[in-house]
Amino acid sequence: MLMGSPFWWLTAIHMLTFQHGSRLITGQFISSPPNSSVIGVIGRVVVLPCRVANNIPEAFFVRWIFHERAQKRTVSRYDGKNEKEKPDESYQGRAEFFPREFRAGNMSLRLRDVRSSDKGLYTCEVSFNDTYHDVFVELQVAATGGVPSILLRSHVKQGIGLTCCVAGWFPKPKVVWLDGQGQIREELSTTKTTTTSAGLYNVVTSMTLKPGSDMEVSCRVVNDLLNTTSESRVLISGIFFPSISKWLIIFLVILCLNMVLISTVFFKLRSKHKKTDQSVKAKMELEEEKHRLRSLLGFMEGSRKVHQVTSDLRFRSSQDSVNFISFILSAEFSDGEKTKRRAAKSNLKKRFGQLKAELGFWEARSHAVPVRPDPDGRVLELRVPAAPGAESEASDPAGTCAGSTVPVLVGKEGFAAGKHYWEVAVGDGQDWVLGVLGDAGGQGEEGAPCGEGEGCWALHSSRGQVYSSGGGSGSERLQRGAAVVGVLLDLEGGQVNFYDVEQTAVMVPAPLRLGKGRAGRFYPFLSRREGTDTPRILPVSTPPPLKLL
């Protein structure tokens, strides 16, 4: 068919006329006005109205549609043959028609259990006899929550904090603070709004009531959609505004001073208690030693009494002789008793000295460290000083007494602080040298005698005699040697001690006297002997416990 033919134009005019008539018919048959509004209460039932004025035939079609943004969801549908279209999941079991009133033209929809998400625009579509009719219905949702509750929060500076809690309202309510005359209060308030899983609003608002304000406070919540209000009112007593007096301030100051005083006394008592414990321990040790001395003296006293009884029986024949001899024996025994007491005291002091020396040895051994000579490192040529009393090199062709140059091995690790102990096996009847080198003695003064330089502390053996040297103090001959020598480098106490390990005693102490500007790192060293395994560094085992008396 051509668009320009007369028949086509007549057909188009007829169709436009029919559609226009359809809209006119809609105005005649749908009694509810377009864009009508209905308010539904959350949790209750609401009816969306849609009514046809005249009787309708049996064959008709009705459908309710919910407009959600750009989408449409079918709420309920009926085609006149008792066949229903499956509605949207959110409306299942909640939306229903009035079937008995269909013939009377009632196409309204009953919506149960109204929710906050049901708010929006709905369309009622009705068609019959080849005509189509629709109407828009706006559903507004509202809910009335609980009565507001006012809580006394706390004292804020010089005021009282009040909080009003409102729960279960929809749409978002308006919450205001009022005074005793019903006027809005001038105090500033802060409001926080939250929503529940059901879409209802909970509101919490807070304010601070200042002293001198109206003590009657009201919290009112308003729902403008339902035109309803709910209100709670409280009356604040003046006792909630206590004034801070100067006596309270004085009391607080005194309380703080007392707390400081108590803390000071507590720390003093604690310190005194520690000192007392130490004194008690020292006193107990003294009591033990006193008990031992008393036992010894008691034994001596018993011997003296036996001696006196024997003398009395032997010389009882003559009273004058007895008196004279008893006097002589008593005087002589008193001198012997004094001598024995002196000997016992001397032995006790000697034993204490031995224990102290042994304890010092084990304490030094507890600082044992591994010492590893560096066979691949630099080998220093160290001049050993001449032995004291050597007159000339002619009397000592080997040069042992006049001083000699000995190759030594220096340890890999140096020490700058703390206490460090190691042991060296030197054997018997051999010439050797061992000790400690400072940075200056090992590097800055090569070739200088070990006893003359300030950076070397050593023991050396020559022809079975042992000599000590160190810190520029020259060389000194010792009374005895040792098969194993222990070396303690005490950088905390400024001392180098050489020990006889078998006797657990100090052979010689050497103070660390360093010149100004000397470096502070010290290295172990020992002489290097070809073809023998001595001297050599020994591993130091864990020291056994000290045996007491």
Helices and strands in order, then pairings?
Blueprint: H1 6-29, E1 36-41, E2 46-48, E3 61-68, E4 71-78, E5 95-96, E6 109-111, E7 120-128, E8 131-142, E9 149-156, E10 159-169, E11 174-178, E12 189-195, E13 201-209, E14 216-223, E15 228-235, H2 246-314, H3 319-365, E16 379-384, E17 404-410, E18 419-425, E19 432-438, H4 439-444, E20 456-462, E21 465-470, E22 475-477, E23 484-490, E24 495-500, E25 505-511, E26 522-527, E27 536-538
Parallel strand pairs: 1-8
Antiparallel strand pairs: 2-6, 3-4, 3-7, 5-6, 7-8, 9-10, 10-13, 11-14, 12-13, 14-15, 16-17, 17-26, 18-23, 18-27, 19-20, 19-26, 20-21, 21-22, 23-24, 24-25
Helix pairs in contact: 2-3
Please describe the structure with a list of short key phrases separated by commas or semicolons:
Immunoglobulin-like, 4 helices, 7-stranded antiparallel β-sheet, disordered N terminus, alpha+beta, elongated, disordered C terminus, 27 strands, single chain, 549 residues
Give an overview of the whole structure.
With 549 residues, the protein is α+β, with helices and mostly antiparallel strands. The protein has 4 domains: 18-142, Immunoglobulin-like, CATH 2.60.40; 149-239, Immunoglobulins (Immunoglobulin-like), CATH 2.60.40; 248-353, no CATH class; 379-390 and 399-538, SPRY domain (Jelly Rolls), CATH 2.60.120.920. 27% of the residues lie in helices and 33% in strands. It is built from 4 helices and 27 strands. It has helices spanning 6-29, 246-314, 319-365, 439-444; strands spanning 36-41, 46-48, 61-68, 71-78, 95-96, 109-111, 120-128, 131-142, 149-156, 159-169, 174-178, 189-195, 201-209, 216-223, 228-235, 379-384, 404-410, 419-425, 432-438, 456-462, 465-470, 475-477, 484-490, 495-500, 505-511, 522-527, 536-538. The strands form 6 sheets. It has a 7-stranded antiparallel sheet. A hairpin with a 5-residue loop joins strand 12 (189-195) and strand 13. Helix 2 (246-314) packs across helix 3 (319-365). The protein starts with 5 loop residues before the first helix and ends in an 11-residue tail after the last strand. The relative contact order is 0.07. The model is unreliable at 1-32, 313-318, 391-401, 441-446 and 545-549 (pLDDT under 50).
